[in-house]
Amino acid sequence: MIKWSLLIFIIAAGSCNSKMLPQEALPKEVVWTSEGLRWEYFQDVLNIEGNSHSLARISWNIRYFFTDTLQAENKDSGYPVSVYAVMIPSRSYVKSWANRTGLLEHEQLHFDIAEVGARRIRKEISETVFDAGTYKLEVAMLYQRHFSEIRQMQKAYDAEHRDRYWGRDYWRMKVGGELEDLKAYSGTAVFVKTGALQNNRTGSN
Fold this sequence. Notes:
The chain has helices at about 45-50, 100-125, 135-160, 165-180, 195-200, and strands at about 10-15, 30, 55-65, 80-85, 95, 130, 190-195. The protein is of the alpha+beta class. The radius of gyration is 19 Å and the shape is elongated. It contains five helices and seven strands; from the N terminus they run ββαβββαβααβα. Helix 2 (about 100-125) packs antiparallel against helix 3 (about 135-160).
């Protein structure tokens, strides 16, 4: 059984020029990687020509899923969980007449902030021993807390980056620094450890 997170949060921002790809050639979601975004991922046709006051918008999310049962090879590690940041092309757009490289960097940093959230979640899951009977609820609550924090961080970034003298450099260093600090949690897979697993690992007589 797979359980997906349901929250989607949309951030309004900057602008750029986009070359439209055929819908069948476009992934439904783009998972964060260090390679970065491309303008052709911004594909929300309804908003791309003047239906919004924003010149560009990225729709991002942090998703997680886990399995119900332990596989034999994972029984000593825990329940496998995948956590990853995504952007959603069908809900992200850029006005076709706009073309500024700095605006792609602005949208990229929104995506990087989402990845910071995913790494924070992976880190806390990795460092926590959960209750065997309620670990799914605990993970969901942990996820919601981090998601709310990242949502506030996204809002603060939009509010502060506009100061060309310090805002952009400050946020670039802040987000880049946290991604580096959390580099050990850049892989999407982690394991949920429970008290029952810990007891089995130590053994008893």
